[in-house]
Amino acid sequence: MLPLCLLFVSFYAKSTEFVVVVNKSNAINALSKREIIDIYMGRYLTFPDGETSKPLDLPAQSALKNDFYLKLVNKDEQKINAYWARLLFSGRAKPPTPSASVEDAINKIAASQFAIGYIPLSQVTDAVKVVYTFD
Amino acid sequence: MLFRGTIAIAILATFAANKTYANDIDVQFSGFASLTLSYTDDSDIGFASSYSNVNESGFSATRDSILGGQANISLAKNWDSVVQLVIQDHAFKSFDNFLELAFVRYRPSRNWAIRAGRLNSDLYLLSEYPYVGYAYLWVRPPHSYYSFANIAGNFDGIDVEYSKAINDGFLRLKLAYGSSTAKIQAYNDDFFIDFDNLTTLSATYSLDAWTMRFSLSRSNFGDYKLTALDEFITALELVPQSIWPQAQSISNKFNTKGNSIEYAAFGVTYDNNNWLIQSELGISESDWIIAPSVFSTYISAGYRVDDAIFYTGFTAAKNRHDVVEVNSPIFPPGTPEQFSVPIQQLAVATQSSVQITNVHQHSVNVGVKWHFSDRLVFKAQLDRFDIKPQGAGLWSLSNPADANKSNKVHILSLNASMVF
User: Fold this and answer.
1) What is the dihedral of CA B104, B106, B111, B112, to 10 degrees?
2) Which of A16, A53, B333, B414 is deepest in the core (most CB within 10 A)?
3) Cβ A61–B163 below 8 Å, yes or no?
């Protein structure tokens, strides 16, 4: 049963097409992958135009979060957790705020002009603006 | 004094932010902990992972056990503050000695950050987070490299950082200036050393799986507090030149006045798929004999299998200069014993003292880090240290007269590290 579940998780993870979304009032209309890495890896705390960015994560230990970081920086969640422990406790930056679900992430992004998040392409709604689509 | 004031502001901000409901002030608490049980098999020589901590031999549950708490406070747009307290087995226990970070930061643009208060140095790859076991591979940062470095791991001062994305990589340049007081113990007495005009320049570049850091640092030794050292220096200065011409020059080597230390370090990490390889190389040059001039290095390689990373490593540290040769005093015929005997004893003590700070050791280790959950890891590590004669400067000999002996020490460590 376990191998079957793993196969399913693996298939699900590989098949997810992600988009990066922001609040509709955000002046940014498009971001490059490089700029998303800068925000999600704590290198810059602002959007390229200088406005504050507040990145959101999907739930810890979810296939979605793990897959997003593999696609973004080729690191799984285990490595991302260690990376953020280094940044947080060296005093450099705080990790993205966790969301309870994709719906929760969409609601938070719709409510905050500074928020940025990643969600599956299939769950995009009119409440948010797509600024990047993964190939 | 200015930096002390900034530290006070940062701490006050923590309390104020905790009690306020103002919209633009936000405080987040987080923490980390390591619980370590370790055993060393040589009772003649005490081990501590840091120069600042209690040296022990045999079983210990406190040697590498750590509890850290941190407050991140957003004060306003572009302004924030961080306060971090780390409880560990410091030889000198005081609030000031447990306060790792307390700074206020201003970011005038996305490329620039200015911090003032108590700051962490980024002289080495791990020196910004040496106590967060969850974040690195080993039970403790490599001893040969980090034991002495930790005493100036934080400082009171100011730093300016410039960061910029360059093609696919990311560059951070930092210039720091300040001072620090290392509070340690020597033979059951408090030993304080001031590091004045501590200046550090570092450059860190990340590109895909690679991270590289190069840094330079310089500091003057300032005042010190150690009664035994005062008495020793005074005794050397009282010896007539004609009897022991070398006494004055040895006295100058033990005195901090006018002496300085310089560091250069280079480190590289390769973290790709299942491989994690890290190495650092450091060189120090010091005029003060108690902080020796050392060449130190380590290399570590880990390979991940599912949730476990198996690793092995090699570390080495060696003095760059020979141990000072202490010449015997020469007494004119007929010198009374009450005059010659104390000077002879002083010469013997001097011989022992110049040997005891000398560093010459290498070690190998094997271990495993197991990711139990997204917040908890377990580690097991076995180290074997080979300490050469007159090379135990990073250890504590139970009998200082044993400085000429070599030691082989094994350390077995079991560790649980977490973040919360």
Assistant:
1) -80
2) A53
3) no
Domain boundaries, chain B: 29-66+131-419
Name residues of chain B where pLDDT drops below 50: 21
CB B88 within 8 A of CB B131: yes
Taking each helix axis as running N to C, give the angle between helix A63-73 and helix A2-15, from 0 to 180 degrees, rounded to the nearest 10: 50
Rounded CA separation B244/A49 (Å): 71
Pick the CATH number of B29-66+131-419 from 1.10.3470, 2.40.160, 2.60.40, 3.40.50: 2.40.160
Report B:120-139 residues touching A (Cβ under 8 A).
120, 122, 128-129, 131-132, 134-136
**Cα distance between residue A57 and residue B6, in whole Å:** 33
pLDDT at site B25: 80
Q: Is residue A7 one of the residues assigned to a domain?
A: no
Here the ipTM equals 0.90
Structural domain harbouring A86: 27-133
Q: Is residue B268 packed enough to be buried (19+ CB in 10 Å), middle (13-18) or exposed (0-12)?
A: middle
Helix (H, G, I), strand (E, B) or coil at A128: strand
For residue B325, count CB atoms less than 10 angstroms from its CB and return exposed for 0-12, middle for 13-18, buried for 19 or more.
exposed
Give the pLDDT confidence of B315-353 residue by residue, as tens digits: 999 999 988 888 888 988 888 888 889 898 998 888 888
Please state, rounded to an integer, the average pLDDT across all residues of chain A: 89
CA distance A60 to chain B (A): 8
Q: Which of A57, A64, A71 is nearest to A104 (CA)?
A: A57
**Cβ-based burial of B23 (10 A; exposed 0-12, middle 13-18, buried ≥19):** exposed
- Residues belonging to chain B: 420
Interface test with B, best of A70, A89, A90, A94 (most B CBs within 10 A): A89
- Where does B239-395 have alpha helices with state H? 246-254, 337-356
- Whether B23 and chain A come into contact, CB under 8 Å, resolves to no
What type of residue is B324? V
pLDDT at A15: 63
Is B179 near chain A, with CB under 8 Å?
Answer: no
pTM: 0.89
Tell me the H-state helices in B270-361.
337-356
